[in-house]
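Write out this protein's structure.
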Amino acid sequence: MDAGTFAAVLAVMVRVRPMAEEERPSRREGLAAGIADGVRLVARDPVLRPALLLTAAAAAGLLPVVSLLGPLLARSAGWGPGAAGLVGAGQSAGVLAVALVAARRGPLRRTGVGASLGLAVAGVGTGALAAAPVPAVAVLAAVVVGAGSSLFACHVGPLVLGAAPGSHLSRVQSALTLVQSAALVPATNVLGGLAHAAGARSALALCAVLGGAAAAAGLASPALRMAGATTAARANAGRREPA
């Protein structure tokens, strides 16, 4: 079944494979030069730079919560593998619920605010998971974690792609994936080591603090607070221009 979903994605990619002409690189531009150009754009852009930093914080502080720390918490608390599975299912339920609402109603107009609020919600859920006394509470906390992470994901994508120029969409998307992977790999090892040394609840508490701090930083950034509204205003202005 999993392979079938990848095949469906491949079919869609083949169907839409023509690249936008404005994004086709010059034949003289090498791979290294193209990568460097994308990195320079992200580093200098007032919206893309903090958006990718938020993505790194989300990857480090959210992705390991249920996949790594949830099972470790269940084992250390003596809840058993069934409880660990329910915690994972709770997160999936939260992700799906928010994704369905976003698909129906669309993201918030201010996508930067929506992404930051998603991190805040996930941070609250992670803190509740760290303090959960029984499996039922842990499952409910995991639902909140999933809802927050889905709220973040539903807004950070439009935020990043809306701020990227048409000539660099693929490069910015690649940078987004790279930042997420680069943050996740070391964070997983650090959190696993912390859970081994001080317990899974301590590692979860650290993730909750990281999520809350990232959310506060995002809401404090003027560029992120206005992101989305500014893009929409430019688009509306462009539509009002005479042909």
